[in-house]
From TrEMBL:
Family annotation (InterPro entries): Metallo-B-lactamas (IPR001279), RibonucZ/Hydroxyglut_hydro (IPR036866)
UniProt organism field: Physocladia obscura
Protein's UniProt name: Metallo-beta-lactamase domain-containing protein
Domain Metallo-beta-lactamase: 184-401
The organism's taxonomic lineage, starting at the top: Eukaryota, Fungi, Fungi incertae sedis, Chytridiomycota, Chytridiomycota incertae sedis
Any one Pfam family match given in the protein's UniProt record, by short name: Lactamase_B_2
């Protein structure tokens, strides 16, 4: 979620939206049949060079340093286009009149609702939250940012040399490096000073990244959606310029933004699209990357709300399963409503049903105040615990807090609220971890 561009109506064709939209790259409204991998495939469409995005289930292509194979959706459904029989899933927006595809996407669950119906109703609520909402850090801490520590690169190297190992390093906000023998995967690397279309305005980071981009060894980049605190185009361009073998995974509709920036090797996925990536040097088998649902929205300008898809991601090696929550809400709780009994997002229970329990998860806990505006799109710590339990996650790591001041709660409040909620619900302390920026956790 990007700063003041609050849920739903804020990014519509509103006055503020137009002002804040600025002059930035506009995402194409639909997914484009993608750039060529330029290499052979088996079981792709036709002969000759084949695009990874048009591969049939079982088809393979060489991309970056990997042999990439399109898998059937987990759970056994055919999955060319995101649903059985090639039909588009319920998250594809449709015209009410005749049910034809309208372009763009929706959250297809009762747990996702719009808090207000217009920008003009939203504005006074926002102003009230700014004036009367919680501002200061909770009294238990005087810190203004999470602790920062240097990355232990020796530990990461050991993880990549140990069969079956998986190490997760928090780079701040939703940015992580997942290290394993199968691949080094960088997730939502927003490392710029501001998460904004403008270099001089917008939410500014309160803690520096724990290392420079040049220090990171990266094979794959995974992006959850196009908000500026998750898709940092500047960083993606630098990564591609440094190593044009990197493979980029994005949800539907986001490929054109990267392609326009000169980036190649892009795999664009609908929910449940799944690809396995194998390196000839790795004997333990491939890493399988699956685009999974979550409850959020997208917008990069004032004019493109929900035209591109948002997602969480599931990454599995032969011995470990990792889940990346991206940006997600879990229930919608508005003024005068109670938390109890409100419908909850079924996506994470579905992930567990298809893949089994998760060994390690990165789940968002911040940017939740005011609750009546943010709940549809951002988990609060209690929601994050629900997601953790729905996934059957053996160990979760908190993210989406302590880096950019996005919600109106105090910067240091989310981990305190998380620990309180964990205590109340009987979770063990090492089940859901709050780590330092730069800290590594092993699955
Ligand atoms: Zn977002």
């Amino acid at each position: 979620m990007f700063g003041f561009r609050l849920p739903t109506v804020f990014a519509r064709r509103s006055v503020l939206g137009v002002v804040s939209g600025g002059s930035l790259a506009v995402c194409g409204p639909h997914y484009v049949a993608g750039g060529m991998g330029g290499v052979f495939s088996e079981d792709g469409e036709g002969d000759g060079p084949v695009d990874v995005n048009t591969l049939k289930v079982g088809g393979t292509i060489q991309l970056g340093g990997f042999t990439v194979k399109r898998m059937g959706a987990a759970g056994g459904e055919a999955n060319e286009g995101g649903s059985p029989k090639g039909e588009k899933g319920a998250h594809h927006r449709r015209n009410a009149a005749d049910g034809t595809l309208a372009g763009g996407f929706v959250n297809p669950w009762p747990s996702a609702r719009d808090p207000v119906t217009s920008f003009w109703l939203m504005l006074p609520k926002l102003l009230a939250a700014r004036v009367f909402g919680p501002k200061a850090a909770a009294p238990e801490t005087s810190a203004s940012a999470p602790p920062l520590r240097p990355v232990d690169f020796g530990r990461l190297t050991r993880a990549t040399q140990t069969p079956g190992a998986m190490a997760l390093t928090w780079l701040g906000h939703a940015a992580f490096l997942l290290s394993s023998a199968e691949a080094n995967v960088l997730l939502d690397p927003c490392l710029s000073d501001r998460c904004s279309p403008l270099s001089f305005a917008g939410p500014k980071r309160v803690v520096q990244p724990p290392c420079s981009l040049d220090e990171l060894d990266v094979d794959v980049v995974v992006i959850s959606h196009n908000h500026y605190d998750h898709l940092d185009l500047d960083v993606l361009k630098k990564l591609h310029a440094k190593n044009n073998n990197i493979v980029f995974f994005v949800p539907l509709g986001n490929k054109s933004l990267l392609t326009a920036a000169g980036i190649s090797n892009i795999v664009e996925c609908d929910w449940w699209d799944s690809f396995s990536l194998s390196k000839t040097t790795v004997k333990t088998g491939p890493i399988t990357i699956t685009c999974t649902p979550c409850q959020h929205f997208s917008s990069r300008t004032a004019w493109d709300r929900n035209e591109t898809l948002w997602s969480s991601w599931h990454l599995a090696t032969s011995s470990k399963r990792f889940f990346f929550g991206g940006d997600t809400g879990y229930r919608s709780v508005f003024e005068g409503e109670t938390e109890e009994g409100s419908p909850t997002c079924p996506a994470f229970r579905e992930v567990r049903a298809r893949f089994g329990d998760t060994d390690l998860s990165a789940l968002p806990i911040g940017a939740y105040e005011p609750r009546h505006l943010f709940s549809p799109i951002h988990c609060n710590p209690n929601d994050a615990i629900d997601v953790h339990l729905d996934l059957g996650s053996k160990k979760s790591v908190a993210m989406h807090w302590g880096t950019f001041p996005l919600g109106f709660e105090g910067v240091m409040e989310p981990p305190i609220a998380l620990r309180e909620a964990m205590k109340k619900r009987g979770l063990k302390e090492d089940e859901f971890l709050v780590v330092d920026v730069g800290e590594t956790v092993e699955a």
